[in-house]
């Protein structure tokens, strides 16, 4: 495009932007929140468990105890996590809390295989595939764990970079969202998972925090099966390496679900021995409620089909609008995920912050630029996370229109210098 | 008593013991668990909240968010905690977890007023009134916090010992169960509370962990009002000193209740800033369930009256049997608490472990001897905690009979050398 053409584009888009701005929008695409229509799917939970508060083992779920969670609920999720049920712990409403507690216990006590508590080491580092999940990074920052970013490819982290990073004995672990990663939708391939399991790490107590938050959150008929990381680690002689997390936050109720952790028998024993100082047990009534409502592993999948009916059209709309509005200009690329909760948009280098500023000033709140990177620092200032789940289809269409307009304005501004 | 009389007593009690032993008992008095009859009082929770999942503020409780908890629930408990509602946080099912997290955050980050994180200090110590709550002590042990035991009198901790202890700048805090303490039932008087609030401590960031677990758990008409520790601390120029905990574990469901923390605005801000890294929010549906069921502060008190109807006769039975069986021998003393969950029994010095061994061998599980002391070490080996709440009245009568028999046997054995 010539300079004049770019100027014409800028004028045209600025006029469109002003019109959108004047319409008084107030839309929020910041977080991956389920919509009310999705939450409605599980309203049966609101009157459960009813009079029968006893689980299949005969436990009165109202009383204290049962640190590892209700067996009948763990049985439903063990196949999804690909972990033997006796190595699955069911917790309260946030798997993030289980990740937090794993880090805290490791810092204070070390994990099985540690020579000393992580917290007394000179430094502790985690490998962080980027772009990634901001709350993972915030946890590490909270506890002074240094982040080593590596690129996340379509089949998982850049293994050359990972191999290099784990030569440092201070590198004690890494994050991974193996299936439909936040925000790119990347799926860790079987081959990459096998390599991670077999990896020769300088730290003998290296851990993979395998946050399978979107294990069953498909957006297409192609239902990706997550690699069996625990089995691969066992086969490679690193049985304690993988710690697997999951939750029903995006299956039932985002704020009132249940969470899960699966790992080796040794890791589970270790975790429970420390967890037992913090609490006498999880909310077993809520676990019973979930077990009764979901019924079985098949019940979970059936419910996820209904989520897909609501979510897939929203993702299709995002991709369609981006293509229609931006396709011809070559100023952006975006993911077309087969599951999960996000579309990842890369704009012209150095303009992501400006795009977010423009959308905000037009009444559309987006996740801050850089959020998907450690310390909020996107070195190329180009990545934007789109969370299409919460707004209504109508609101979403407007919001993505605002976003596309902002992308074009910021690109034109930069081109004109 | 002469040696012969003691031998006769031992023979008589041993015969009684054998008879009890042969009856194949299997009773558990180890923990302060509510009985099924008590849990039944709150069965309405099992079908709440019903179709209306929106709180009074218009929040959809099913979704993410609301880190500090539902306002309408906090409003019910703020008067009980004597803390302004905006300084109360409502959490999930265990106040123990809130205490744990306060310790962890303090160790990693320090508290408002700290010069540095507690964890980088040479040593950190807590004053522990004894006998006290074993889970408090286990938390300190878990995190390497040294315990400084001080005697707990009927009106609170021995203040001479406390004054001496807090001259050490490593002493960063103390535990207190101010009302109907676990296990003695002691109530911290207004005068002692005022002195604690005004105390001149070497550590500028000294904290009182005021675990008001039994605030409304009266066993008599005399409804003790807990001292207003937050107000007293403010009045003494130590606004950040008190951190108050409470929960509904012994009001609604022990395993599926809600917990509370109240403190200064600064402490609450500090707590939430760290908590927000661990979780996006508590289970608000369960908080709504509780707000709807309890209705008001008066609703809580009314429910506690019904608990009292179930509990008071059990406590009366314990005291009656101990008096009938042990009163004439001068080998034991016990508390007659006006609230809470425990009777504290002191037997002949050096015999508590033997008593617990005897009860166990007769099929009655009791809290281990020494449990009410830091590191499980009762220097006089004389204290036994009785938890009368869970067994049925009939089972309780038998269990206390076994206990009394065991106390007499152990005392006679010792006297005979």
Automatic annotation (TrEMBL), chains A, B:
Q: Which GO terms describe its molecular function?
A: L-aspartate:2-oxoglutarate aminotransferase activity
The answer, when asked if Flavoprotein is one of the entry's keywords, is no
The reply to whether Transferase figures as a keyword in the UniProt entry is yes
Keywords, alphabetical: Aminotransferase, Transferase
Q: What is this protein called?
A: Aminotransferase
Tell me the CDD domains matching this sequence.
AAT_like
Task: Note the Pfam families from the entry.
Answer: Asp_aminotransf (PF12897)
């Amino acid at each position: 495009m010539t300079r004049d053409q770019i100027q014409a584009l800028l004028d045209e888009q600025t006029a469109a932007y002003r019109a959108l701005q004047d319409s008084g929008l107030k839309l929020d695409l910041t977080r991956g929140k389920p919509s009310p229509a999705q939450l409605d799917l599980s309203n049966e939970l609101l009157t459960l468990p009813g009079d029968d508060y006893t689980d299949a083992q005969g436990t009165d779920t109202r009383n204290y105890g049962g640190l590892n969670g209700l067996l009948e609920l763990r049985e439903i999720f063990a196949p999804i996590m690909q972990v033997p049920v006796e190595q699955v712990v069911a917790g309260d409403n946030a798997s993030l809390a289980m990740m937090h507690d794993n880090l805290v216990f490791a810092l204070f006590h070390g994990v099985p295989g540690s020579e000393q508590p992580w917290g007394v080491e000179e430094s502790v580092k985690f490998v962080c595939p980027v772009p990634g999940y901001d709350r993972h990074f915030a946890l590490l920052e909270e506890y002074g764990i240094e982040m080593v970013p590596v690129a996340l490819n379509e089949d998982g982290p850049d293994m050359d970079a990972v191999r290099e990073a784990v030569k440092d004995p201070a590198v004690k672990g890494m994050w991974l969202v193996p299936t439909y990663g936040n925000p790119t939708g990347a799926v860790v391939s079987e081959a990459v998972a096998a390599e991670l399991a077999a990896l020769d790490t300088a730290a003998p107590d290296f851990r993979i925090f395998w946050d399978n938050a979107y294990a069953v959150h498909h957006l297409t008929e192609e239902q990706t099966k997550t690699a069996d990381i625990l089995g691969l680690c066992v086969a490679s002689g690193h049985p304690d390496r993988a710690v697997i997390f999951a939750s029903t936050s995006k299956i039932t109720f985002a704020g009132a679900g249940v969470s899960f952790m699966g790992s080796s028998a040794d890791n589970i024993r270790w975790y429970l021995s420390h967890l037992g100082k913090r609490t006498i047990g999880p909310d077993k009534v809520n676990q019973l409620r979930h077990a009764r409502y979901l019924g079985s592993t098949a019940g979970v999948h059936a419910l996820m089909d209904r989520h897909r009916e609501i979510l897939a059209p929203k993702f299709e709309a995002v991709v369609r609008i981006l293509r229609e509005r931006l396709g011809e200009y070559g100023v952006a690329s975006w993911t077309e995920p087969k599951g999960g909760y996000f579309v990842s948009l890369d704009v012209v280098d150095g303009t992501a912050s400006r795009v977010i500023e423009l959308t905000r000033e037009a009444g559309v709140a987006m996740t801050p630029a850089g959020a998907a990177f450690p310390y909020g620092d996107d070195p190329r200032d180009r990545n934007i996370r789109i969370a299409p789940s919460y707004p209504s289809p109508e609101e979403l269409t407007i919001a993505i229109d605002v976003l596309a307009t902002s992308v074009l304005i910021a690109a034109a501004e930069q081109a004109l210098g």
